[in-house]
Write a sequence for this structure.
């Protein structure tokens, strides 16, 4: 592997961890905003992100342009899938036990790999698939899902939300490979989401307190940072090499939960942390040491 490819992979890992950190703050602010309609939370989250994206485009003198019919089709799928995925995720948070909703949201990295394998023809080795599965098992120790009494419809919506997010990120990978600027992708998605949810917001708008407004602004800022970071991550490296690092969001969420809501992790959670970190280290060693050594010997 060349020096440029290695440097690109390092950047992708940093970006996806930064994305996980930003999205953890977004979830915390969404929870702090209280009992507001899912569509309302989704609209304001994307409304703030849209302004961030427009600011980046203007600052860097980037023209909002998407060249090619296929790129236009893919970015539309990215925006629609991402919007539906976000609605599903927020709906699950509002109607399920939080740990159940979190688990369903963490299905998205699996769908990224699946869709990247199907549509982008990215190779997936047994070892890489094994480590992602182990990381997911580690996440179960942290979130400890309890599906005994869960309603079927919210669970199905949350599952489909994870699928939508996975498809959206696979589209981001394709768009990055075909020359579409990351800020353009974020701006398109944020603008599309605002237009998509606006009619529903008008029909069912709930007045907000100043604190709720500030929370949604914070959620939007966290979302903007997360969107830019994860867009950059998937344009720098294949999904199979970096998706496992997205599970660091569970660690950040747990830390924020402790300081903001007094949540204290138990022993099973710490076991989950160990498994996730161990898998991340194994993936790093495989991609940057062991795999390179085998290529040199071959």
């Amino acid at each position: 592997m060349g020096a440029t490819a290695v440097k690109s992979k390092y950047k992708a890992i940093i970006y996806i961890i930064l994305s996980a950190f930003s999205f953890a703050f977004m979830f915390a602010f969404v929870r702090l905003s209280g009992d507001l309609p899912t569509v309302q939370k989704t609209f304001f989250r994307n409304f703030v992100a849209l302004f961030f994206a427009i600011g980046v485009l203007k600052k860097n003198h980037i023209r909002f342009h998407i060249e090619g019919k296929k790129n236009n089709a893919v970015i539309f799928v990215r925006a629609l899938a991402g919007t539906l995925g976000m609605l599903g995720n927020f709906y699950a948070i509002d109607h399920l036990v939080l740990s159940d909703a979190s688990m369903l949201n963490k299905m998205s990295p699996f769908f990224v790999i699946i869709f990247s394998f199907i549509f982008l023809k990215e190779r997936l080795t047994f070892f890489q698939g094994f480590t992602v599965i182990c990381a997911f098992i580690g996440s179960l120790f942290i979130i400890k899902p309890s599906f005994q009494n869960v309603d079927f419809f919210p669970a199905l919506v949350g599952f489909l939300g994870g699928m939508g997010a996975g498809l959206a990120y696979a589209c981001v990978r394709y768009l990055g490979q075909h020359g579409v600027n990351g800020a353009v992708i974020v701006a398109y998605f944020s603008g599309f989401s605002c237009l998509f949810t606006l009619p529903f917001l008008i029909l069912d708008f709930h007045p907000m307190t100043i604190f709720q407004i500030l929370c949604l602004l914070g959620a939007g800022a966290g979302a903007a940072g997360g969107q830019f970071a994860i867009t950059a991550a998937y344009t720098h490296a294949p999904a199979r090499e970096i998706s496992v690092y997205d599970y660091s969001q569970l660690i950040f969420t747990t830390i924020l939960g402790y300081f903001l809501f007094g949540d204290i992790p138990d022993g099973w959670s710490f076991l989950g942390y160990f498994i996730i970190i161990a898998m991340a280290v194994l993936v790093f060693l495989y991609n940057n040491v062991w795999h390179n050594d085998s290529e040199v010997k071959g």
User: Anything to note?
Assistant: The chain is about 80% helix and 0% strand.
